Amino acid sequence: MAAIQNNDGASRGHFGSRFGFIMAAAGSAVGVGNIWGFPTQAASNGGGAFLMVYMFLIFLLGYPMLVAELMVGRHGQTNPADAMAKLGRSPVTKMIGSLIGLASIICAAMIFSFYAVLSGWFVSNTLAPIATMVGADEVSRWLIDFSFSRNAVFTLVFALMCIYVIQKGVQDGIEKWSKRLMPLLFAILIASVIYILFQPGAMEGVSALFTVDFEKVMHPDVIIGALGQTFFSLSIGTGAMMIYGSYLKANENISKLAVHVTFMDTGVAFLAAMLILPAMYVAKHNGVTIFDGSGNLLSSDTLVFTVLPALFATMGAAEHIVAIIFFALMSVAALTSAMSVVEVPTSYIVDKTAMSRKKVTWIVGAALTALAMAVVSNFDFMFGFMIKLATEITQPLVCLGLAIFVGWLWHRNSLLTEIKGQDGADENGIFWKVWPLYVKFVCPALIIVLISTTL
Ligand code: PFF
C-alpha cells in the first residue's frame, strides 16, 4: 500500500485516486441522515420551505466548512487533535486547538453509539424478508420487532462490518469498499425513485415535498434541526472529513473536490425525498395510515419501520424483493458513513502509539461497540440523549471552534502555501480570496446566531 510519512516518521495511508477520495467522502456524507432524516424532516417541517432553508445552509455554511475541515486535515497530515493544534500560534491556542480536535474525536464516538444501533436495524430488516421467504417466520418476526436481543446482536454485526473494512486500511479498506458500495447505492436509489413515481398516489407525495410552508420553517426548532442536519449530513465537526483530508495529496484541489461531495450529498438527500415522500402517499393510497390523530405525519421511525413495510406488503409478488432492496440501500448508506466515524479515533491512536493498525482497529472497535451497547441497554434515555449531545451541541460547537481557528489563527503564509500547492488553484482568484474572510466572519456569525436560537 502506498504510504507517506507523518511527523513521527510512521507511515500514514492515503487515497490512491481522486475518484476514490470522492467516493469515500461522499460515502461518509451520504448516510441515514440523507435517506431517512432529511425526507422525514422536510415532510413534517414545511416541505419545500425546509428544502430551501436546508439547501441555503448546505451551500452557505456546510460547503465552506467542509473545505475548512479538509484543508486543516490535509495541512496537518495527522489526526484532528494534532492538526488543530498545528494552527495555534501560542502554547495556549495550541492546547485549545488540540482540545477542539479531541472534542471532535469524542463526537465521532458518540455518533457511532447511536448510528450503529440504527444501522443494525437496517441490516436486520434486510434479512427479515429472506427469513420469511425460506419459511423461518419466527426468525423474521424477531428480526423486525424491537427487542434487546435483536438490537444487541445487530449492533454487534454492524460494528463488525465497520471494523472489518477499517482494519484493512485506507486504500484496501475505506477506498476499495467506498468505490464498490457508492455506485451500488446510486443505482438502487435511482431505480427505486423511478419505480415509486409510477405507483398510484405518488404524485401527492411529490406535491407535499414541493408545497412551501414558510410558517413552519421559521420556528427555532426547525432552523436548529436544519443546522444540525447540515453538519450531520456533511459529516463535519466530527473529525471524519479532517481525517479524510489528511489522506489527500498536497496537489489535490480541495474546493473542487468538496463541490463534488456537497452535490452528491444534497443530490442524494433530494432523491431520497423523492423516494420516501411519494412512498408514504402510495402507502396512503393503498390504505396504510400515515398521519397521526392530529393530522401530522407519523414519527420518522414509524414511517420507515412500520409504514414502508406495510406498503411493501401491498405489493404482492414484489413485496419481499422491494423490502430487501430498500433496507439494503439503507444498510449500504449507513456502512460507508459509520466507517468514517470509526476511522477518526482509530487514526488518532495509530498516530499516537506504535501499535499496528489492525490491532488498534479492534481495540477502538471494541470500545465503540461497548458504548453502542450502553445505548442498546438504556435505549429510552441514551438514544435520544446521544443524538442531541452529538449533533445539536458538540458538532456545532466544534464547527465554531474550527471556523475560528481557520479564520483567525491559521498563519496567512502557511495558508497561502497550502492553497498554492493545489493543482489549478489561483490564490488570487475569487474563491480563495473570499473563502478565508468568509470563514473568518460569516461562518462563526451564522453558527452563533443559529446556536443562540436554541437557547
Ligand atoms: N453524514 C452521515 C449521514 O448523513 O448519515 C452521518 C455522519 C457520518 C455524521 C460521519 C458524522 C460523521 F462523522
Give a short synopsis of this structure:
One of its GO terms (cellular component) is membrane. This protein has helices at 18-29, 32-44, 48-76, 80-87, 91-133, 137-144, 148-166, 170-197, 202-210, 214-217, 220-233, 240-246, 254-285, 300-313, 319-352, 357-377, 379-409, 412-420, 430-452; strands at 3-5, 11-13. The chain is an all-alpha fold.
How would you characterize the overall build of this protein?
This protein has 455 residues and is mostly helical. The protein has one domain (16-452): Hydantoin permease (Orthogonal Bundle). The protein has helices spanning 18-29, 32-44, 48-76, 80-87, 91-133, 137-144, 148-166, 170-197, 202-210, 214-217, 220-233, 240-246, 254-285, 300-313, 319-352, 357-377, 379-409, 412-420, 430-452, and strands at residues 3-5, 11-13. Strands 1-2 form a two-stranded antiparallel sheet. Helix 5 (91-133) crosses helix 7. It is globular and about 65 Å long. Residues 28-29, 31-34, 108, 111, 232-233, 235, 238, 240, 337, 340-341 line the site of 4-fluoro-L-phenylalanine (PFF). It is found in: Membrane.
- Could you estimate the helical fraction of the residues in percent? over 70%
What is the ordering of alpha helices and beta strands?
EEHHHHHHHHHHHHHHHHHHH
Strand order of the largest sheet: 1-2
Summarize the main sheet.
2 strands, antiparallel
Radius of gyration of CA atoms, rounded to a whole number: 22 Å
Q: Uncertain spans, ≥5 residues at pLDDT below 50? A: 1-10
CATH first level: Mainly Alpha
| Average pLDDT rating | 92
Tally of strands: 2
- The domain tally reads 1
CATH topology: Hydantoin permease
Tell me the overall shape: globular
Beta-strand residue percentage: under 5%
